[in-house]
Amino acid sequence: MRFQRLDDWLDWQTRLHPSAVELGLTRVAAVWRRLHPNPFPSAVITVAGTNGKGSCAAMLEGILGAAGYRTGCYTSPHLLRYNERIRVDGEEVADERICRAFGRVDRARRETSLTYFEFGTLAALDIFAAEAPDVVILEVGLGGRLDAVNIIDPDVALITSLALDHMDWLGNDLDRIAREKAGILRAKRPAVFGGPQPPLSLRRRAEELDAPLSVAADDFSFDQRGMAWDWRTAGRSLLDLPLPSLPGRFQLQNAAAVLKTLDLISDRLPVSRDAVCTGLADLSLAGRFQIIPGPVPLILDVAHNPAAALALADTLAQTPCDGRTLAVFSMLAGKDVRGVVEVLAPHVDGWFLGTLEDGRALPAEDMLQQMDSAEITREAKAFEDMKGAFEAAKEEVQPGDRLLVFGSFLTVASALECLAAESWLLP
Fold this sequence. Notes:
- The chain contains 15 helices and 17 strands.
- By secondary structure, it is α/β, with parallel strands linked by helices.
- The protein is globular.
């Protein structure tokens, strides 16, 4: 085997391919056929969408696990540990097992060059093929049609939401983006769209494939009643369900789509109401309005596009604070910083902008200039790194305030690393 340590494998993979992203299935599919020429042994649910993919994958994993099924789940990106990406029965796969899978992929690829994401996807699929769980949940990394997970045919496809993001790769309008997401659909196999009014390109692709498409509001619905909610679809309803433990009203939209997805695969994987309740109530997912309590509560959220920022703003409004809301914020280059900040500006009393330690990082001074051009300069300060932004925020906050850390996954990861290193939050 080329390496013994997981970190060595990952470092090598970042330099293996000429570009960090190269959408396309030819190379990765060829390697997969050499690894596993036989049909995939598990039922498969593939999850695509602009926002909500991670939440929906976690809900599916939790409910199906509560129903007694063995689960495999592949998500990305990770926050602190690469192992977060590959789970079997809800548990992260150990370093040694991932390294063995990397070794198998390395041997099978021969001279084929693979990106970091392609290498990891093949390793996850190799692990799942060996474990043969009842069901595997695959989260699309980017788009859908040309994403590496799309080498596996799903039994049911879930598209959570559509918004403008990754436009350099997917197109600059919702119809083109929907066409890319619709690439996970398969002929005569059911699919779910988590929102109402899907773009025409999505409906057309489903019709071309004769893939039954269930759409929110048309084919399934939900209603909140205080601290409970009801879900309905043709011939079936689930009443008085507990709210998902992930905060935010938008999580009900995700949960409703998840329940319809499970409804469409219930002939193979029937799920009881008790399993639904347990799966929703026991759910946890880092970085999705994750609250770390204290004299100054810390809120962590990976909102990094305007649509996600709208959901974050709504959840902040539903979670009042007696004091100020101060934000530590950073994003990657190419993202719509102005669009995100404009949405959240009414909810933030001070901004601490940091520069991420990543080649794709947008310098804090550039973010500050974009905020200046939008006339959003309210108490905004730029720092050379994330630690400087965190330390400045620590000096500023007082009991009764709250600190919001949001933006890129790397922004939230840097906060979690700081928390692990020292108790920097308490005033």
